[in-house]
Amino acid sequence: MERTILLLPGWGMSNDCWDNVRANFPDCRFIMPDYSAVDRPDHFYQVIEKAVIGVDARSMLVVGWSLGGMLALRLAASYPVTGLVLIGSTARFVRTRAERDRGWSEIVLQRMKQLLPMERERVMTDFVERMLSEKERELSIALSTFTLDRSEWSLAALVAGLSYLAEEDCRPLLSSIICPTLVIHGTEDVICPLPAGEELSALIPGASFFPMVGSGHALPVTCPNAVSEAIKGWWG
Questions:
Q1: Which of 78, 189, 206, 224 is the most buried (most CB within 10 A)?
Q2: What letter does residue 92 receive in the DSSP assignment?
């Protein structure tokens, strides 16, 4: 049976961000949804469901990064997928003050939404800068080719994505995830902090946890080979 991998990127990311990961799985079929026409938070999941129509879920590995990981959780809770990989993701992005070690204040997302129509490039550049760990910035690792230059996301999609991050809460779904699950998380991630990944691995039954020491949020771009090897070692 042919293996299918559904790849779900993070907020504002081009599907090109998966290029170096895909190269490590030459015998697999890939599905990568197009979010360019999304204009409401609930449309993201609708796009994914449309993309997998006719696909045997039992042969599909779902790989979600960041926002894509939240969408992947919802899909895995509804379909009998063969496996789930969550990269730099979280069950709930917006957190209370007491949980600030696991997420962001909603005020930050509101400010980004206000600035986007006037200063899209600045908002995206600032977000990309936060994706990198201090070590990665010292190495001058560039992510701009996967955001400012290649991103297919419209302004409406970017705004809808921020609304999705503000509203979505997958925590009630975690105990119902029955497929094998791998959580990959950078120890220096400040977008979805490490405790958010640890929370996922603790609350999803039987989940495996793979910390990427010294890495930030952009693991599919900064560490594609290490991410691929972690998936292969777990998936078989």
A1: 189
A2: -
